[in-house]
Each structure stands twice: as C-alpha cells, then as structure tokens.
Amino acid sequence: MGGRRRPGSRVGDRDGAVRPDRWWAVTASVLSAHRATRTFRNGSGVFDVDLQLHSGQVLALVGLNGAGKSTLMRMLLGMLRPDRGEVRLERWNVAFAPASAWARVGHLVEYPLAYPELSVRRNLQLSARMRGARDVDAAVESIMAEFALEPYRERRTRALSLGNRQRVGLAAALQHDPNVIVLDEPSNALDPAGVIRLRESLLRRAGEGAAVLVSSHHLDEVARIADRIVVMNAGRLIGDLDPGTPEIERAFFETVRVDDERGAR
C-alpha cells in the first residue's frame, strides 16, 4: 500500500491520454485551459496555458515558489478570470458552469477552509451539506476515519495543529466523492502518516475514475502517484517529466535552468 503505481496500473500517458484498457476510457477532458492568460500589474501571472485533465488521471503541476501554480489553479476553479483564453469545466466555460457541475468538484487551494470556532465534526457536516452529500452523517464518519480525525471530532478547529487543520481541509474537499479534485500543495504540514493517507486516498479515487490535479514542490512524493508531471516556470508550462525518471529532482532543476537561460537571451 502507498507505493508507486505499477506500470500496468497507470491510468494515463505523458500526453494526458487515458489508456484504453481502463473501463472509464475518456474521450474528452473534464477540466481544461486553452491559451489561458492572467497578467498582474507587476508583470507576473500565467501566460498562454494549455492543459487538459481527464477522468482517472493524476496530473501533477510542479514549479518553484512564484512559478504561477496557485494562480493557475485559481483560474481553473473560476476564482480568477483569465484576461484572455478560456477555462472549461466539462462542457462549460467556468464563468457560466452551473452549480450542479461545481458540486462534482472538490478543491483545496492555499489554505484549509474551516470555521475556527466550530468542531471538526461540525465543520465537516457543514461542508458536506454545502457540497450536496446524500447522507451527511455517513460522509462525515467515513472521511474522518479515512484521515484519522476521529480523536479530534469534537475539538475546535482553531485548537488543532497546522497539520491536522490541513487534514480537515482535505477531508472537506473529498468527502462528497468529487469527480474532479484540485489540490494546491495538499501535503503541506502533513506528517508522514498523513502524507501516506493522502496518497492512498488520491490513488483510490483516481482508480475509481476521478480526475486529480495536484500542485507540489515535493517531486519525490508526486512521482509516486502521478501519471503526468508538468513543469511550470515564470507563469508558463515548459515541459513534462516522466514520473519514473531517476533523480527526478535533478531533471526538474535542469528543465527550469534551461528555460531560464532561454528566457535571458
């Protein structure tokens, strides 16, 4: 449990296409960006991004701090509108996607979403209701077990450690069994046991057909779960890394170095 996927169990190729030997073989992306650009006053931003995420695929977005990963994820979730280009959730532009489409999305971007004065259980109940879970109590009990939150169920969220608050945020994002999962730096502050639980949760959900997009600067961890690793630098997607690459961190830094040198010419 918790190790790298076996080659025969990978759900996607490096070009993002899902292999046809899976029952959920995909013909269209569930979340995509087409030449999506958002520029800020200081000149930073995200530029001409083309990206597709398919059902059953685990796609990892990696880059140095300030590369634009969080900005891109916020655009994909409709939190920021592109200056030009388009972002689509299933068949809709994200600006016009109906609530029924967003109900199938689970996300955690930058900070765990929780009411600090409420208990862990109450936070998860409210989240489950807002996300349309069919059986709220069952969803809460199941996700608390999945992320080992039972000992803290009646504790106020503000009294938790940062790592356990992160677990609450992840639990809230995943408890309604979303079809599309978008997580920005999901392993932040997690202890080793928490990282393993997260890894197993995402692999299971992808195996059941969910589309998973994660950003991270922990290359060794995302290489354990990703079908495709996309490198971002200075707001642009600059290439892919094979998850099976030996010394993947060295390959990452070399990819970024070459791009920086090209940009300096």
UniProtKB/TrEMBL annotation:
Record Pfam families: ABC_tran
Sequence ranges assigned to domain ABC transporter in this UniProt record: 31-259
Any GO molecular function: ATP hydrolysis activity
Signal peptide boundaries: none
Record's keyword terms, sorted: ATP-binding, Nucleotide-binding, Transport
InterPro entries for the chain: AAA+_ATPase, ABC_transporter-like_ATP-bd, ABC_transporter-like_CS, P-loop_NTPase
Gene3D superfamilies reported for this sequence: P-loop containing nucleotide triphosphate hydrolases (3.40.50.300)
SUPFAM superfamilies: P-loop containing nucleoside triphosphate hydrolases (SSF52540)
Family, per entry: Belongs to the ABC transporter superfamily.
Name of this chain's protein: ABC transporter ATP-binding protein
